[in-house]
Specification:
Elements: E1 2-7, E2 16-21, E3 24-28, H1 37-40, E4 56-58, H2 64-67, H3 70-75, E5 82-84, H4 86-113, H5 127-134, E6 137-139, E7 146-147, E8 152-158, E9 166-172, E10 175-179, E11 202-206, H6 219-232, E12 236-240, H7 246-259, E13 268-271, H8 273-284, H9 293-302, E14 304-306, H10 309-317, E15 322-326, H11 336-343, E16 350-353, H12 362-367, E17 372-375, E18 378-381, E19 385-388, H13 398-406, E20 414-418, H14 422-435, E21 440-442, E22 448-450
Parallel strand pairs: 3-4, 4-5, 5-6, 10-11, 11-20, 12-15, 12-16, 13-14, 13-15, 16-19, 20-21
Antiparallel strand pairs: 1-2, 1-22, 2-3, 7-8, 8-9, 9-10, 17-18
Amino acid sequence: MKLTFFGGAGTVTGSKILLEAGYKKILIDCGLFQGLKELRLKNWDAPPIEFNDLDLVLLTHAHLDHSGYLPILTKNGYTGKIYATEATKDLTEIILLDSGKIQEEDAKRANKYGYTKHKPAKPLYTINDARQTITQLETFKLNQWHPIDDTIKFKFLNSGHILGSVFIVLSISGKIVVFSGDIGRKEPILLDPYEYIKKADYLVVESTYGNRIHQNSAIKDVLLKPILSTYAKGGILIIPTFSVERAQEIIYLLSVLKRENKLPEIPIYLDSPMGVNATEVYYKHKNAHKLSADDIQSMHSTVQLVSDVNTSKAIVKNNDPKIVLAGSGMMTGGRVLHYLDKCLSDQKNSILIVGFQAEGTRGRALLAGDTEIKFFGKYHSIKAEVFKINAFSGHADQTEILDWLHHFEKPPVLTIINHGESHQSQALRTKIRTDLHWNCTIAKMNKVYHLE
């Protein structure tokens, strides 16, 4: 057996791990690179492997950095299956169609306004490419072994990161190989907590927050502070929101605050077609989260869901105080840019950042205190107040990762740390070696790891 990392090594984006076992070639996740331009350019590189040589793709969850490269895979010759949970399939469909649409719109805008070196600029992939990919998804239940061939079987276990997210456990001729994907929180807001695993001969574990301990605070009260601060100034609060999980968490907490009569009387919008669709997926998969029927009804009555583009434009133009949740969460595209275009230069307005911001994204620039950011082909001054809440993270922090690792009955032969920037992965490796005395290393891009 051997593993090769074609993404998610030294970075939190572009997750792709090739597992070769005997004659089988299995790809674990197939994500898009995001953030730094040097990373985004990798999406345009020649494919790292012959896609038509692949036997199977296993998907840990639907987020773009784990699923967003799939249309490139399929349009370049992969005709096999993509295995996932039912909720992951539904969310992946939404995310890939949205991504294809954004790719097309970005290319169209670049050509219209001339801010491109390419003549003409072309989308990385199209909506039709995404549609083809969706036909290749096949779903499987949690906590059941499923055979791939006579010597290889797999099962999905809940990882508590987003709806449908899983750990992937593979049994290969009796050897157990575990891929964590993204590990969720020990006490998620909406989901059941991650499951523990007792055995792994080889383990690949994420390290997004391998160097950090999350805030331990009453999160809805923390959320209320920027709302009241912005309302007191007569401003607009913009929350760049990841459409899957984060949007639903915030809507739920806003509904709780409303029930407690703590919210000011202002309209609240979720202006994100993908976020609206993802919220409907939550309502569909009633057994995959902790929301009650009353919770869902309260969420419905608290936030106005906006998909129509004309309604969105009207909300952007209106200067009245309001709260707007809009994608994308790292401000790399989507409708949030139109709100920033209108509101960013006015100090009475606020931006609330509620999730991880990858290096090279506009969100990271805001957190770093930059005085301007570039989008729509020009620079925009930052005068709005910027708030940050760390407690919203859907990723386990260092303590929670170690809690999960502590439940293995004995150390894996080798633990490979991935999905983290260098300092995060290094910190987690030091902690694992110090506390657990495990043999571990940090994944390097394109390096082959031979498993005995």
